């Protein structure tokens, strides 16, 4: 059924950052939107103000029999009562789509630019969307965060019904990015993650190779050339695929690498961190130009380079890139400053590399200040699979407060239950680090401990993909 014909939609897991964007998409089209989630949140309350009817708790009766389409979060199991109701509806089965499947269907209607990678997806997606907006491309954008300046936060709706471009964050969990039908892809980087699904890093690489191969011959691929040089890819590494296409096809995708190495098509040079900002020059075949960023970290320089490369390949002017980057203040839960004194920063990062790079970014922007990290590990399996990497990353702090692991329902295995934050903390203490390391326990106790430890001049990083953000918001009051 074409989306234009959908008059009534039900969203299971409507409080999620992705499914809530779907709800806003259909509300903007005048559809009746209902949905359900376990708890009330700022996201669900906002949707209710916009006209959605939301039920708290999952029950079959939440789904009206005349619903045209049911959208569900990938976290919602097949035996969910509302999904069962959709399949067993007496009048007719209700069409079901997961959130990634919905994005795949939507992508068929646009020139789609899909951004994936282990780190940096949300920021890069937001930057590309903002640059294309500034350049007059009028894109549809869906991002897994909230972008200041966009009234709907996690979705930007085009002004024109004839809008051509769709910029979308393509999550790599469960290889969800393979649902999309992109004309262009951006791969920010790759690291071992989501190993409860992939099993090993080779399978992660294989999934990204399949993602790259979705690009048609007249599309383009933007990839992190610095990271590719460090990885042991097989036959389908971007540079090798590029050679294959060049040999066998007259029309082929454009391949554009970005990074700090001189071999990249878009190279950052002369990076400087000064006065709460960073700047660098971009060297490309098109031009050499200067950019300034008010968000910290070498990782954000990579994100900016990826966005620049994608935007310029689409024909956006350099001036639009420079203006957007200079004015960009970041997005929700990506080094988000929620209080100035003490400096409280909320960040979604939950991978060891993200932790290390965020600590480094804080030290660059705020030298000579004590760095305090309040960290909530996300998922027992991830903590166990990357145990030594977490030990190394978390030993780099001046002060660490480690809360209990956020248990992800339906994604844990019995074999991963042996790991816990108390054991992880002991390993960190034994690693030779010179910081203070504290076990926080549950979130209430973690917050109480943090209030005792934090000093006025501290830089406090509150990190994790679970519900640790509530601690950051409480500390900001």
Q: What can you see in these coordinates?
A:
This protein has 477 residues and is of the alpha/beta class. The protein has three domains: 3-96, NAD(P)-binding Rossmann-like Domain (Rossmann fold), CATH 3.40.50.720; 110-327, UDP-N-acetylmuramoyl-L-alanine:D-glutamate ligase (3-Layer(aba) Sandwich), CATH 3.40.1190.10; 336-475, Mur ligase, C-terminal domain (Protein-Tyrosine Phosphatase, Chain A, Alpha-Beta Complex), CATH 3.90.190.20. Helices cover 35% and strands 22% of the residues. It contains 17 helices and 21 strands. It has a ten-stranded mixed sheet, with helices on both faces. Strands 16-17-21-18-19-20 form a six-stranded mixed sheet, sandwiched between helices. It has a five-stranded parallel sheet with strand order 3-2-1-4-5, sandwiched between helices. Helix 1 (17-28) links the parallel strand 1 and strand 2. The longest helix has 17 residues, at 298-314. The model has no long low-confidence stretch (mean pLDDT 91).
């Amino acid at each position: 059924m074409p989306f234009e014909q959908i008059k009534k939609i039900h969203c299971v897991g409507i409080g999620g950052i992705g499914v809530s964007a779907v709800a806003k998409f259909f509300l903007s089209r005048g559809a009746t939107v209902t949905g359900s989630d376990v708890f009330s949140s700022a996201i669900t309350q906002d949707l209710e103000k916009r006209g959605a009817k939301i039920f708290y708790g999952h029950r079959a009766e939440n789904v009206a029999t005349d619903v045209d389409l049911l959208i569900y979060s990938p976290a919602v199991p097949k035996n969910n009562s509302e999904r069962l109701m959709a399949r067993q509806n007496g009048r007719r089965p209700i069409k079901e789509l997961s959130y990634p499947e919905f994005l795949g269907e939507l992508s068929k209607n646009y020139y789609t630019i899909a951004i994936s990678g282990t780190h940096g997806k949300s920021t890069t997606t937001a930057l590309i969307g903002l640059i294309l907006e500034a350049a007059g491309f009028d894109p549809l954008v869906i991002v897994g965060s909230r972008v200041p300046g966009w009234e709907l936060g996690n979705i930007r709706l085009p002004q024109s019904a004839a809008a051509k471009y769709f910029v979308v964050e393509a999550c790599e969990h469960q290889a969800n990015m393979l649902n999309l039908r992109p004309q262009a892809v951006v791969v920010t980087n790759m690291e071992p993650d989501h190993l409860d699904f992939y099993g090993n890093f080779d399978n992660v690489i294989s999934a990204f190779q399949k993602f790259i191969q979705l690009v048609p011959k007249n599309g383009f691929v933007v990839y992190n050339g610095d990271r590719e040089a460090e990885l042991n890819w097989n036959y389908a590494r971007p540079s090798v695929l590029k050679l294959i296409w060049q040999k066998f096809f007259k029309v082929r995708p454009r391949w554009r690498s970005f990074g700090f190495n001189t071999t990249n098509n878009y190279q950052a040079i002369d990076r400087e961190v000064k006065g709460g900002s960073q700047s660098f020059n971009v060297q490309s075949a098109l031009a050499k130009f200067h950019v300034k960023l008010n968000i910290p970290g070498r990782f954000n320089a990579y994100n900016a380079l990826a966005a620049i490369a994608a935007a310029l390949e689409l024909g956006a002017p350099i001036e639009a890139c420079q203006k957007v980057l200079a004015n960009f203040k970041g997005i929700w839960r990506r080094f988000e400053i929620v209080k100035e004194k003490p400096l409280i920063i909320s960040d979604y990062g939950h991978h060891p590399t993200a932790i290390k790079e965020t600590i480094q970014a804080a030290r660059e922007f705020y030298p000579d200040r004590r760095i305090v990290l309040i960290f909530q590990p996300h998922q027992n399996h991830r903590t166990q699979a990357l145990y030594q990497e977490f030990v190394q990353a978390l030993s780099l702090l001046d002060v660490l407060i480690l809360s209990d692991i956020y248990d992800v329902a339906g994604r844990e295995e019995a074999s991963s239950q042996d790991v816990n934050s108390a054991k992880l903390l002991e390993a960190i203490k034994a690693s030779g680090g010179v910081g203070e390391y504290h076990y926080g326990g549950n979130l209430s106790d973690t917050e109480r401990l943090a209030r005792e430890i934090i000093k006025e001049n501290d830089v406090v990083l509150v990190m994790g993909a679970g519900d640790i953000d509530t601690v950051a918001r409480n500390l900001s009051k």
